[in-house]
Amino acid sequence: MDPPLPIEGILPPDLQGTLLRAGPGEGAMGALHAVELRDGTAVSYLTCESAADANVLWHAGSVLALAEVGLPLQYSRQLEAEDFSGGLTVPIASHIHREAATGHRVLFGVEEGAETTQLRVGEWDAAGALASFQSVTLERSTWQHDLAVTARHIIFIESPTEPLGGDDAVDFRWAPGAECWVGVVRRDGDGSAVRRFRLDPCLVTHVVGAYDEGIGGDEGGIVLFVCRYEVPEKGQPVDLTSSVVGEPGIGMTSIGGGLAVLERWRIEGERLERVQVDDRWVEYPRVDPLCEGAAFRYGYCVEMASGVAGGMEVDHLGLLRLDTQRDEVAVWNPGQYRTAGEPLFVRSVDGHGDDEGWLLTVVDDATRGASDLYVLDASSFGRRGPQAVIHLPVRLPFRSHGEWVGADRYR
Ligand SMILES: [Fe+2]
């Protein structure tokens, strides 16, 4: 057995579990990575090649790896390939939200028909069985990368994009002048009753989090926080030969001179209100997994920078913590030549709020030529340095998504 990974600082003893990350591998293949933390040590680092490298998660006793679009690939906890046992035959998108209250996973995919485009939404129960399924007719074929899940609703966004054509199902281009719609369906519905809201065109890549207000059924409002990009206006000259979707599943566009900003959307009755929360550029947002689908206070995301005029080169700076109650943003930067990846929040064993715990982020250190796993205290975010830094034996350039799997979920 390999020795534990070197650590600077003190690893919190309540961090018991495994960090899963998807990312680039050798050549064209992607890779999965797993770092296990136990009793204050980083006991192991495992990796394997995987053709599915957009997201990786733990569900019903297996590791599932997802491509941008496709069938999941299944692995054991030791990252040994297994036959996929999820009962799916149609491709799905890489984002599979896990609702905290039930442990259900909400999965979705787009199916192009001869006359209509269908958004297929299903749910796996905590044991991995397909528990429900519904099909919603979309206005058009648009890029569907992520959607919002609350205790009772699914919210999807139809941005002004259209398929680029060709073989690759993930390539979409701008459709300047096309309408933009938000659709809301009940999770326990059959897809026929869709509430639709037209909004000023924008592109949404990732949803930070979403929840139903109060306990009043459909009469209550729905709140969601999103990463919102500007889109070209009708007649605005844009390149229609290239995809607006970057390899990491983010918008590679600087329409309006920037990348994504955080917005709060509130749906009530016939109205959808939008408020920009902050003007920094953000991506890869996460909330406390214990709040997924329910009210949350804090969102965590990567602060982005546009490295090249025109915006096709993007870079990561550090992390941001958004306090949605105060609309305040705290900033943490890992320092020169270091770039932080998607932050994953882990509630500490005695934590009550969604800032009482740890943030895990893989920081690529160009000076060392390798990556480190940083553990930050989320409650003192931006005011203190890392609680611990684990030196990984590889360079894990940031791309894609991952998940923290607490040891209790292995049982
Ligand atoms: Fe994504």
What is shown here, in short?
The protein is mainly β. 0% of the residues lie in helices and 48% in strands.
Principal-axes shape call: globular
Main sheet: strands, sense, barrel: 6 strands, antiparallel
The class by helix and strand makeup works out as mainly beta
The figure for the number of domains is: 1
What distance lies between the first and last C-alpha atoms, to the nearest angstrom?
Answer: 23 Å
Low-confidence stretches: 308-312
Strand fraction: over 45%
**Name of the CATH class:** Mainly Beta
Provide mean pLDDT, rounded: 90
Helix content: under 10%
Structure notes:
- With about 400 residues, the protein is an all-beta fold.
- The chain is built from no helices and 34 strands.
- The chain has a single domain (about 5-410), classed as Methylamine Dehydrogenase, Chain H.
- The chain is about 0% helix and about 50% strand.
- The strands form 9 sheets. Strands 1, 29, 30, 31, 32 and 33 form a 6-stranded antiparallel β-sheet that branches. It has a 4-stranded antiparallel β-sheet with strand order 4-3-2-34, with no helix packed on it.
- It binds fe (ii) ion.
- Fe (ii) ion (FE2) binds next to loops.
Chain-wise SSE layout:
Layout: E1 7-9, E2 17-24, E3 30-38, E4 41-50, E5 55-59, E6 62-66, E7 69-70, E8 73-75, E9 81-82, E10 92-93, E11 97-98, E12 105-112, E13 117-124, E14 130-138, E15 148-149, E16 153-158, E17 161-163, E18 172-174, E19 180-186, E20 195-199, E21 203-212, E22 222-229, E23 261-268, E24 271-276, E25 282-286, E26 298-306, E27 314-323, E28 328-332, E29 338-340, E30 344-347, E31 357-365, E32 370-377, E33 388-391, E34 402-406
Antiparallel strand pairs: 1-33, 2-3, 2-34, 3-4, 5-6, 6-8, 7-10, 8-9, 11-12, 12-13, 13-14, 15-16, 16-19, 17-18, 19-20, 21-22, 22-23, 23-24, 25-26, 26-27, 27-28, 29-31, 30-31, 31-32, 32-33
This protein binds fe (ii) ion.
Residues 94-95, 145-146, 206, 249, 401 line the site of fe (ii) ion.
